[in-house]
Amino acid sequence: LACIDGTDESFVTVRFGARYCVQSNCDLIILFVRPIDQGLHSGGLQVRLARQNMLDAGFELPGVRHLRRAIEILKEEGIDVSAWPQEAEHQDAWGDAAGDNKIEYLSPEGRSVVVKLKTAPDVANGILDQYELGPYNLIILGEPSRWRGEVAAFFDSGIVQTVTTMAPCSVLVARQSFAKSGYFICTDGSSRSMQAVRRSAVLATVTGEPITLFSVATTESGRSAAEDAVANAKALLRAMKINVAETRVAVGTPAEEIIESGSLYKVIVVTDEGRSRFQRLFRGSIATDVVRAARTSVLDVR
């Protein structure tokens, strides 16, 4: 689920989504959420949208031109849906004149690409509501514009922070990191962390990116455990016939060490330590700190 808001920075989510969908068994949904109450009070509008493809309806709903641009970006990335059979759908939502609108393109191999204009009270809730309609393996968001402390975030948080904190599935916060190379996969040796290693290594392999495994010990006495963590992760990937380019260990504060070393790579991979969404909201996590402060894209695996 690649989410866009119309800013130039947000379209990086479409490029990441396209590169993950190099195989025919991967579907891609591109979502633009339009908040309710943008002056579209017309019963005739509902009828026209129910009968027509939103991209061809002859008027510009907020978000439609951004979805058109997303389709153009997909073509640049090698996914040209123009000749695929398509089906348009309109649903009433929140008493809004425009409602929810989507177009689904189906490839000859069975791959689905959907562009969707969704109406919701606010953007973050619209994205999370869309997850419930999936569900999806991965939500891709653009770089956050602002972050707040954990308690303050409950009352006033940005879209990316809210979705990253509350999403049940993995979240990629995508930054302009395409000039960089490699997946910097962090592990602490736990079973949950090892699952994150396995899943993110598959993504790295699909996209042709080299893999670096990394673990942090908080004290020098914990170095051997960190070395064991990366060795075990490497053995796991060897059994999957996935090559590891490098293993690294550091001693220090985990979030700081991950950010400092990992920002040289295309994607940092972290996991949320098994905390619930409400624990993440009030107590934060290493993953949250990395997502907030990293200077590259961050994949938070759940």
Question: Would you write up a description of this structure?
Answer:
This protein is an alpha/beta fold. It has two domains: 2-142, no CATH class; 183-301, Rossmann fold, CATH 3.40.50.620. Helices cover 37% and strands 25% of the residues. The chain is built from eleven helices and twelve strands. It has helices at residues 12-20, 43-51, 64-76, 123-133, 150-155, 159-166, 191-206, 223-239, 254-262, 277-283, 286-293; strands at 2-4, 28-35, 86-93, 96-106, 112-120, 138-142, 170-174, 183-186, 211-217, 246-251, 267-271, 297-301. Strands 6-7-12-11-8-9-10 form a seven-stranded mixed sheet, sandwiched between helices. The protein has a five-stranded mixed sheet with strand order 1-2-5-4-3, with helices on both faces. Strand 8 (183-186), helix 7 (191-206) and strand 9 (211-217) form a beta-alpha-beta unit. Helix 9 (254-262) packs parallel to helix 11 (286-293). It is elongated, with a radius of gyration of 20 Å. Mean pLDDT is 86; it is low at 41-51, 150-156 and 278-284.
Identify the notable features of this structure and list them briefly.
302 residues; alpha/beta; Rossmann fold; 2 domains; seven-stranded mixed beta sheet; five-stranded mixed beta sheet
Structural topology:
Layout: E1 2-4, H1 12-20, E2 28-35, H2 43-51, H3 64-76, E3 86-93, E4 96-106, E5 112-120, H4 123-133, E6 138-142, H5 150-155, H6 159-166, E7 170-174, E8 183-186, H7 191-206, E9 211-217, H8 223-239, E10 246-251, H9 254-262, E11 267-271, H10 277-283, H11 286-293, E12 297-301
Parallel strand pairs: 1-2, 2-5, 6-7, 8-9, 8-11, 9-10, 11-12
Antiparallel strand pairs: 3-4, 4-5, 7-12
